[in-house]
Amino acid sequence: MLQLVAGITLMLVGTAVLFAWIQNRTGLDGQRSPAEVGMETPPSTVRADS
Hints:
Layout: H1 2-26, H2 34-40, H3 43-49
């Protein structure tokens, strides 16, 4: 019984993480999220390059 509950919980958590990741990647309106753009070009590296 405990294994069944643990398996279902794992499945639910995995599905929730997957959906959150997909929404993060695409954005709700299909645009890229500011966090993703900020991660690609952090201000610190931009200052170091210029």
